[in-house]
Specification:
Blueprint: H1 4-24, H2 35-38, E1 43-49, E2 52-59, H3 66-79, E3 95-102, E4 106-107, E5 120-125, E6 128-132, H4 135-140, H5 144-155, E7 169-173, E8 175-179
Helix pairs in contact: 1-3
Length: about 180
C-alpha cells in the first residue's frame, strides 16, 4: 500500500506528464526517491472528462519503477487509447485522473472466491486476452457471472462463457485505486 503522500505525488506526476506531453509532445524529466514509487508494479491510468471516461490504459505487470509506469500510462491514456481521440489542450482543465496500482496477478482456482469490487480479473484463451479492473464491477453493478461473461465477450473477444472452460486461464489481482477529487 502506498502512503497518502506517495499517492498524491503519483497524481501530480500523471497530471504534469499529460500537460507537458499535450503541450510539447515530450514527457517531463522526473526523478523520484520515495521507496513506494520505485517498486516495480503494474498500474492503470484512467482519465475522466466532465464525469465520462476519456481514456484508460495500463500495464498489468510493471517493468520499471512505478512512477515511470504511471508516466508512460498517463501519456498512453491521453494520446493513444484507440477508443478516443487524443486529449486536447482545451480539455486539460476538466480532466480528472484516477490511478490503479495493481498487485501481482494470481491464477484463479475457484471463481466462487472472486470478490466483485475487490478483485480485477484477467482472462486468457489462446492469443486472446482481456482485463477488467476491480472498479468495473462496482461501476456496472455486475455480479460475478455477468462480470466474467462481459470480460470474455467484450474484452477478450471470445465466447461469453469461455471462462467456464478449463482451457481458459483466469487470473485475479487487487488494486489500490485513488484519484483527484
Amino acid at each position: 500500500m502506498l502512503t497518502g503522500k506517495e499517492k498524491k505525488r503519483l497524481l501530480e506526476i500523471a497530471k504534469s506528464t499529460i500537460e507537458k506531453f499535450i503541450r510539447t509532445g515530450q514527457a517531463p524529466q522526473i526523478a523520484e526517491e520515495a521507496q513506494g514509487l520505485l517498486e516495480e508494479k503494474g498500474a492503470f491510468v484512467t482519465l475522466h472528462y466532465k464525469g465520462k471516461l476519456r481514456g484508460c490504459i495500463g500495464k498489468i505487470i510493471g517493468d520499471g519503477p512505478l512512477y515511470k509506469t504511471v508516466m508512460e500510462m498517463a501519456i498512453e491514456s491521453a494520446a493513444n487509447d484507440p477508443r478516443f481521440r487524443p486529449v486536447g489542450m482545451a480539455e486539460l482543465k476538466d480532466i480528472r485522473i484516477e490511478i490503479s496500482v495493481l498487485s501481482k496477478p494470481e491464477r484463479v482456482a475457484d471463481v466462487k472466491k472472486l470478490k466483485m469490487g475487490i478483485h480485477g480479473v484477467i482472462v486468457k484463451r489462446g492469443f486472446n486476452s482481456g482485463v477488467f479492473l476491480p472498479q468495473v464491477a462496482t461501476e456496472t453493478g455486475w455480479g460475478c457471472e455477468e462480470f466474467l461473461n462481459n470480460l470474455c465477450a467484450h474484452k477478450a473477444c471470445i465466447a461469453a462463457d469461455a471462462w467456464k472452460d478449463p482451457r481458459t486461464e483466469l487470473y485475479s489481482f487487487t488494486a489500490d485505486v485513488f484519484g483527484e477529487e
